[in-house]
């Protein structure tokens, strides 16, 4: 990586570096070894040798390094002479003078001469100097292993080449490692260096190492290393495509990104490329310049039809361009491509306008007449006609390219082609194209929607719908149905409801059944999206009956999926599931990609939601993702389905799988509702793992995507997560505000009790935390908000009575959590309430809140100081679950409670420690012999060395300013016990007052800050 800036890390050369290390090991054992490192210009040869020799020198190995220069044969032995001069001036090598005394006079003469100073000299013949240099190198190796580096051997003089042969012939048992570099795009078959290499390849001590371009992972590491300079990690693909893994190009591109953005090609790089091109014969230059305009790869038959060369001359030109490392054969072996994308960019940018138009016209004509096996053939033809400024022909080819892309489910490509067609039609105003603007816009919106870019689809179609007359009704209902569908995909479900309702209301009495069904179907889907399940089911049932009576089989697919979900949610799970599965079957038979995707999505939502068949839902989601990828819908519906599966995996405790699912989906940069759902899914995982800053970033991004018309099913989870994060941050007042905002959004807008229940639990938890804090300081507790939230929770539970059994069970779990939290808020924590909540949540397959309920149950039992065995059992269950999940903040809370209660958690679970002090006795908990703390002597500098662990815990509470009563409640011991501990502390520390003791502990705490990964322990029970 010779050209790569030292400020960037040395990456991607582990195997090559190890090969050099092995060669040096052979040399250490007294065996001369030579390694020839080859590669194209800028591939990283010099950087590899520099890094290797620097590492060897740190280990005490001597090395001298020289490089040949491009002055033909006028500098005999120049690389070795220059290297020796620098080597002998280095004070680290002062030992060398003694070893070289026999040759010192001769060395002074040849080292003083410049590059041309020995040319024609009669004082020392080449053979004499050759023999002397071999003896000098052998003498230097007597000190220890010696590395001799000669770079750029393709420029080396005859004498230096001869020296390498002479060294390998005469050095046998000397510990010398010869390293040399040369360019593969330098010496041709007749070059003298090639003759030398052919002679040496039969020597078993000689090794050849050809450096390949860096792989994508290495390029990624280099780009990430440059992010401190303002380069986005998203530029990895840009750098990779343009550099082809060439180190010097990577450096130049990164520098350009630092200075001017991705469109800038540095002048130094432009000059380097053109210099390499301009030294080639004219026929080769012509071939390369024509090839640059052809796109990649260019089939040989097409290139033959475009270049102004004979077949024989073209083949020769191609071979010369490949030898110069400018182009290479395509992987198929049928065509050619540039080795580095940026080289192609430079050559194109250097073309004159007339040249560009002429070459592109030739390419378009050739591609229209020469059949090639290329699925993007129409797109390439369109691009060439466009660059040739033949806009009518470009328009027709672009439309053909869009239709071809749709046939192959390449909707992203189709979308870009339709947009290009719209642009071209603007240029062709007044010309007959055979397409109207409205039709093109509708096709572009449809392709954008299927490609997952719902925002673009909405913006395109709204232009047509705005001010659209209601007649003809067929066009009116079709465009409103499409717009409503795109709005839902963009997450703007309430806007979609208005659009669909408008289409239904504008229906004339004599409207055809197909139009009636279309209007009602879209409206029912929008109602389902906002959680109006009863209204949605009514609309879907009515439309389905009409579709069946009219024989409209295709229209039934989406209606069955919509109605099935509604039925299942409203208490008919089996008929609902059967309807969704039937809808999927009809959709597959209709071969409509959008209908197939919708049916798959409803099936996954149903299994992972109202039916609570989570493992089955995850399997269905994985199957759906594969199917939608086949249909080219992986960016839209496929992303939403991944988010559904990730939430299911989170709920059942498979967090690593959930993370992988989310990260896989984020690669495609989803937009609209898919992006919102995916970020919310990741935020749940991040919060559970304790990555609060990353969770905050995701929540902020989601807030930027939300509008007032986004469905409550997306807005309410956001506010629920916001409340949970505020709880972890010790801000229950702030959490209370998020809960209030969520309840305002839900008012009269959603039947989705399942979404509201977690929000209400967060609200009551916040009230409980506020109440506990007030109680600790003897302040009165205001239960007004608490009572209102409990009342709302009971009302939601009543509403859930008509829902599916799984939904009722889920809501019941949250009801029990809320009642248990309420007992905490009222100052009488009820362990039985927490036990009931844990049991229900466990039946519902929700290990995370189960662990939280066990934690609270243990806390309630410890507060009573009468049922220690149950408390330890609950802490054990909570800790085991939290560790298995990787829920670090929750585990931290569990460990904090265990520490306060003087319960040890060994080997991933609490110790069996059941004897706690009664209200009137001062008794320390018993510790099993195998768990007794080791009696290691404390450091003399520890002022608290005389205190027991329990006394230290009491002292820490004193430092926080707590009273004996507050300490007793915190540590789950009697107030008298605290008093005795305080007396012991004062006596052992030689202090008179508890204030002095607290001050001492405070000073010690300030002197020992928390470790970086520590979490604050106060009020952070933020389970979502």
Can you identify the CATH class of the domain at 14-212? Alpha Beta
How many beta-strand elements?
Answer: 8
CATH architecture classification of the domain at 14-212: 3-Layer(aba) Sandwich
* Classification by helices and strands: mainly alpha
Any idea of the CATH topology of the domain at 14-212? Answer: Rossmann fold
Rg over alpha carbons: 38 Å
Helix content: 55-70%
Fourth CATH level, the homologous superfamily of the domain at 14-212 = P-loop containing nucleotide triphosphate hydrolases
Pick out the low-confidence regions. 1-6, 119-124, 909-940, 1009-1022
Largest sheet: 5 strands, parallel
Count the helices. How many?
Answer: 47
N-to-C CA distance: 49 Å
Strand residue percentage? under 5%
The strands making up the biggest β-sheet line up spatially as 2-3-4-1-5
Question: Overall mean pLDDT score?
Answer: 84
Q: Globular, elongated, flat, extended or rod-shaped: what is the shape?
A: flat
Question: What does this entry show, briefly?
Answer:
This protein has 1024 residues and is mostly helical.
Task: Please describe what this structure looks like.
With 1024 residues, the protein is mainly alpha-helical. Among the domains are: 14-212, 3-Layer(aba) Sandwich (Rossmann fold), CATH 3.40.50; 232-244 and 261-437, no CATH class. The protein is 64% helix and 4% strand. The protein is built from 47 helices and eight strands. The strands form two sheets. Strands 2-3-4-1-5 form a five-stranded parallel sheet, with helices on both faces. A three-stranded antiparallel sheet has the order 6-8-7. Strand 7 and strand 8 (335-338) form a beta hairpin. Helix 32 runs antiparallel to helix 33. It is flat and about 105 Å long. It starts with 13 loop residues before the first helix and ends in a 17-residue tail after the last helix. The model is unreliable at 1-6, 119-124, 909-940 and 1009-1022 (pLDDT under 50).
């Amino acid at each position: 990586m010779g050209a790569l800036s030292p400020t960037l890390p040395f990456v991607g050369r582990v195997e090559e570096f190890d090969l050099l290390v092995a060669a040096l090991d052979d040399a250490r054992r007294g065996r001369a070894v030579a390694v020839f490192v080859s590669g194209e210009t800028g591939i990283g040869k010099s950087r590899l040798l520099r890094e290797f020799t620097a590492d060897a020198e740190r280990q005490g190995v001597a090395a001298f390094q020289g490089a040949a220069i491009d002055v033909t044969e006028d500098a005999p032995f120049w690389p070795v002479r220059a290297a020796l001069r620098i080597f002998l001036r280095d004070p680290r090598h002062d030992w060398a003078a003694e070893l070289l005394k026999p040759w010192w006079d001769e060395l002074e003469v040849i080292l003083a001469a410049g590059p041309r100073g020995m040319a024609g000299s009669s004082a020392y013949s080449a053979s004499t100097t050759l023999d002397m240099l071999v003896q000098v190198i052998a003498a230097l190796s007597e000190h220890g292993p010696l590395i001799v580096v000669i770079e750029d051997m393709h420029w080396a003089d005859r004498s230096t080449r001869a020296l390498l042969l002479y060294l390998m012939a005469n050095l046998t048992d000397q510990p010398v490692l010869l390293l040399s570099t040369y360019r593969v795009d330098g010496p041709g078959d007749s070059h003298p260096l090639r003759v030398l290499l052919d002679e040496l390849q039969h020597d078993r001590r000689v090794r050849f190492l050809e450096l390949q371009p860096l792989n994508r992972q290495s390029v990624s590491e280099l780009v990430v290393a440059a992010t401190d300079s303002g380069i986005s990690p998203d530029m990895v693909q840009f750098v990779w495509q343009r550099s082809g893994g060439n180190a010097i190009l990577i450096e130049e591109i990164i520098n350009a990104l630092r200075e001017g953005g991705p469109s800038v090609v540095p002048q130094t790089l432009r000059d380097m490329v053109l210099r390499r091109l301009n030294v080639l014969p004219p026929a080769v230059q012509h071939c390369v310049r024509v090839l640059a305009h052809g796109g990649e790869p260019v089939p040989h038959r097409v290139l033959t039809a475009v270049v102004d060369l004979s077949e024989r001359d073209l083949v020769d030109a191609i071979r010369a361009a490949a030898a110069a490392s400018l182009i290479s054969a395509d992987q198929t072996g049928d065509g050619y491509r540039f080795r580095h994308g940026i080289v192609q960019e430079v050559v194109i940018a250097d073309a004159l306008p007339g040249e560009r138009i002429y070459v592109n016209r030739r390419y378009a004509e050739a591609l229209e007449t020469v059949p090639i096996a290329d699925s993007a053939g129409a797109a390439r033809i369109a691009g060439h006609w466009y660059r040739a400024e033949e806009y009518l022909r470009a328009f027709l080819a672009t439309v053909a390219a869009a239709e071809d892309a749709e046939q192959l489910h390449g909707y992203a490509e189709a979308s870009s082609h339709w947009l290009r067609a719209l642009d071209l039609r603007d240029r062709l105003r007044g010309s007959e194209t055979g397409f109207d603007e409205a039709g093109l816009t509708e096709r572009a919106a449809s392709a954008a929607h299927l490609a997952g870019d719902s925002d673009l689809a909405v913006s395109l179609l709204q232009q047509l719908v705005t001010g659209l007359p209601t007649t003809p009704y067929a066009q009116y209902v079709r465009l409103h149905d499409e717009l409503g569908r795109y709005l839902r995909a963009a997450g703007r479900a309430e806007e979609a409801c208005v659009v669909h309702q408008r289409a239904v209301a504008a229906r004339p009495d004599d409207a055809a059944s197909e139009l009636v069904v279309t209007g009602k179907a879209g409206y029912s889907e929008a109602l389902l999206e906002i959680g109006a399940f009863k209204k949605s089911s009514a609309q879907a049932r009515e439309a389905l009956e009409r579709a069946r009576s009219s024989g409209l089989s295709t229209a039934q697919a989406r209606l069955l999926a919509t109605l099935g979900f509604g039925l299942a949610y409203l208490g008919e799970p089996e008929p609902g599931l059967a309807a969704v599965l039937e809808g999927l079957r009809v959709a597959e038979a209709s071969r409509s990609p959008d209908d197939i995707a919708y049916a798959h999505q409803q099936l996954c939502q149903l299994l992972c939601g109202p039916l609570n068949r989570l493992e089955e839902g995850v399997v269905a989601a994985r199957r759906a993702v594969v199917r939608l990828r086949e249909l080219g819908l992986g960016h839209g519906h496929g992303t939403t389905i991944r988010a559904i599966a990730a939430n299911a995996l989170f709920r059942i405790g498979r967090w690593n799988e959930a993370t992988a699912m989310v990260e896989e989906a984020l690669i495609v940069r989803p937009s609209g509702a898919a992006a919102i759902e995916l970020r919310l899914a990741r935020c749940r995982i991040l919060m559970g793992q304790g990555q609060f800053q990353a969770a905050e970033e995701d929540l902020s991004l989601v807030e930027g995507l939300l509008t007032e018309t986004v469905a409550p099913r997306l807005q309410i989870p956001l506010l629920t997560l916001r409340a949970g994060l505020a709880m972890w941050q010790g801000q229950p007042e702030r959490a209370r505000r998020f809960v209030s905002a969520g309840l305002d959004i839900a008012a009269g807008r959603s039947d989705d009790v399942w979404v509201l229940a977690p929000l209400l639990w967060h609200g009551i938890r916040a009230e409980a935390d506020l109440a506990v804090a007030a109680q600790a300081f003897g302040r009165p507790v205001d239960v007004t908000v608490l009572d209102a939230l409990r009342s709302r929770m009971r009302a939601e539970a009543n509403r859930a009575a008509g829902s599916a059994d799984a939904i009722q069970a889920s809501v019941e779990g949250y009801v029990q959590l809320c009642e248990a939290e309420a007992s905490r808020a009222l100052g009488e924590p009820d362990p039985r309430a927490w036990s009931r909540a844990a049991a229900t949540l466990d039946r519902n397959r929700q290990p995370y809140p189960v662990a939280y309920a066990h934690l609270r149950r243990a806390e309630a039992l410890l507060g009573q100081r009468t049922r220690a065995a149950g408390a330890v059992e609950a802490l054990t269950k909570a800790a085991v679950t939290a560790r298995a999940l990787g829920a670090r903040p929750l585990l931290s809370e569990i460990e904090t409670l265990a520490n306060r209660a003087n319960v040890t958690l060994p080997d991933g679970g609490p110790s069996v420690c059941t004897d706690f002090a009664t209200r009137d006795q001062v008794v320390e908990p018993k510790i099993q012999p195998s768990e007794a703390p080791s009696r290691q002597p404390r450091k003399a500098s520890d002022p608290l060395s005389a205190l027991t662990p329990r006394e230290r815990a009491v002292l820490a509470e004193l430092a926080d300013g707590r009273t004996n009563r507050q300490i007793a409640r915190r540590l789950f011991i009697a107030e008298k016990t605290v008093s005795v501990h305080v007396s012991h502390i004062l006596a052992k520390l030689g202090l008179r007052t508890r204030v002095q003791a607290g001050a001492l502990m405070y000073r010690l705490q300030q002197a020992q800050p928390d470790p970086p990964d520590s979490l604050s322990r106060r009020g952070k029970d933020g389970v979502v």
